[in-house]
Every structure is written in C-alpha cells, then in structure tokens.
Amino acid sequence: MSTKGTDAPLRVYHAPLLSPLGVAHLFGTTTGLLAIALPQETAEVTIAALTHRLGTLDLVAGEAMLGDALAQLAAYFAGERHDFDLPLDLRGTPFQRAVWQASRDIPYGETRHYREIAATLRSPAAARAVGSANAANPLPPIIPCHRLLGADGALRGHRSGLATKRWLLEHERHMSLTATPRAAVATACTKRP
After folding, report:
1. Which residue(s) pair with 24 in the sheet?
2. Last residue of a domain, which of 87, 105, 134?
3. Which of 77, 110, 164, 186 could lock onto 160 through a cystine, CB 3.0 to 4.6 A?
4. Mean pLDDT score of the chain, rounded to an integer?
5. Domain containing residue 44
6. Which residues are catalytic?
7. DSSP letters along 103-142, please?
8. Phi then psi for 16, rounded to 5 degrees?
9. CA 65, CA 98: separation in Å to the nearest integer?
10. Structurally, how many domains does the chain consist of?
11. What is the pLDDT of residues 2-26, one digit of tens each?
12. What are the CA-CA distances from residue 67 to residues 15, 57, 62, 190 (Å)?
C-alpha cells in the first residue's frame, strides 16, 4: 500500500508525546498508527525514512486523529497500561510482520531470545533475520522489540539505542512488581517538529 511512484501524497498525521525519555513523535494514517520516533530519533529522520519508503507525504498535525495512541502511550509510560489496543498501519514484509506479531505476544515485563522467536516462526536458524526484522520495527514500544535479547541474555541493538532498550525493560520490570501505578509521566505536547 505504497504511494511511491504515484502523484497523490500519502496523508500522514503527526503528534508529539512528552515521555520520561523525552519527546517522542507519532505518525499515523486513517488506517492506523504508522511509526513512532522515540526521543533518541528525530522526527525529521523518521519523516525522511517514511518518505523514502512510501513516497511523497502530506504531513499534517494530528493530535485529534492520534488521540487514542497518545493516551495509550501516556498510560504505558505511567505504568497504567501493559498492552495496546490500537489500529496499526504496518508496512513490512510478511516475515517482518510475523516477527512483529511474535514480539507483541511476549508478555509485559518478560523477555525472549531472538532464537526463541525464530523457533516459534518455524525458522530456528533465522535468529539474525529476527534481529533484522526487529531493527525495522516502526512502532516501539507498541511492538515491544525491546523484549528481545541475545542468546547469552545480553542486550542487543535497538533503533533508539541500548539505553532506551534498557530503560523500557527496567520500566516494565518495575511496573510488574509494583501494585500501584505511578502518577502519569507522559502528556501530549503542543510543539510541532
């Protein structure tokens, strides 16, 4: 469902979200959430990547259109939400989409090894391909690629850096252990990229 090569630009809605990690940027279409740039990435880099993959974009402010995503992510960062119920506009290969779904099946606060995901996909030798698919994950932490570890239990790459991956894992472990959610720590921003 690419607009690349056509004359019609793809309308993409954008909204910033202030999180404990800094300002994240959400991008979506009328189909669903398309991409999230966590604070260690810039909105400009994500926009450039989307343009490269999808063609010309018609980028518009989308706080209202992305309201549910903003609210659910704010609740996740506040420790009040463990999973997401959002329409997604996933654009990837069938293998990438299978890996992303397998990542979404990992329970909150738990981790798996890349080879375990490869085995669940009936491709036990594809641990590196699983890592590559997760590197292309457009929707962290909704698709929780941070929950995947190397065979030795070590943190491996994350598009937003290992510090972000470590923070997300520690956040989930801490929230899994506490009965009372923290006060909300994420709010929608009014600044534009």
Report:
1. 17
2. 87
3. 164
4. 87
5. 10-87
6. 145
7. HHTSPTT--EEHHHHHHHTT-TT-HHHHHHHHHT-SSTTT
8. -85, 155
9. 27
10. 2
11. 455 567 999 999 999 999 999 999 9
12. 9, 20, 8, 13
